[in-house]
From TrEMBL:
Keywords: DNA-binding, Phosphoprotein, Transcription, Transcription regulation, Two-component regulatory system
Protein name as catalogued: Response regulator
SMART domains, sorted: REC (SM00448)
Entries under Pfam families matching the protein: Response_reg (PF00072)
InterPro entries named among the record's database cross-references: Bact_response_regulator, CheY-like_superfamily, Sig_transdc_resp-reg_receiver
Biological processes, Gene Ontology terms: phosphorelay signal transduction system
Organism, scientific name: Metabacillus sediminilitoris
Length: 121
């Protein structure tokens, strides 16, 4: 099963997503800020990286830029409460494969992950 990194600073949401994805059989690593996530990305290989847009140390957008600058082509989903089209456009132009606004249903998240990972095969 796929290995996913979830970088989310909101603990309750992170726990909900981790529990949901583990129940679906995914292997999940978690990070509570951008720096922790970046260190995990440098040390591990992932099938999908899920980033929160607003995190401490490095924002999701800064982290996305760093990942793509490192020539890492891992699929990336950005989660954000910011639903403005300009934010979504910037995220996608920077290299994210998908943008999902918060709040979201756990089932919708699973559907999107299955779509993204299915495209990667």
């Amino acid at each position: 099963m796929a290995k996913i990194l979830l970088a989310e600073d909101e603990e309750v949401l992170r726990m909900l997503v981790v529990d949901t994805l583990e129940d679906e059989g995914y292997k999940i690593d978690e990070a509570c800020d951008g720096k922790e996530a970046y260190n995990l990305i440098k040390e591990n290989s992932y099938d999908l990286i899920i980033l929160d847009y607003m995190m401490p140390v490095y924002t999701g957008l800064e982290l996305l830029e760093m990942i793509r600058h490192d020539n890492n082509q891992t699929r990336i989903m950005m989660l954000s409460a910011k639903s403005q089209k300009s934010v979504q456009q910037k995220v996608l132009e920077t290299g994210a494969d998908y943008f999902m606004t918060k709040p979201f249903s756990p089932m919708k998240l699973i559907e999107r992950i299955e779509e993204i990972l299915g495209e990667a095969e």
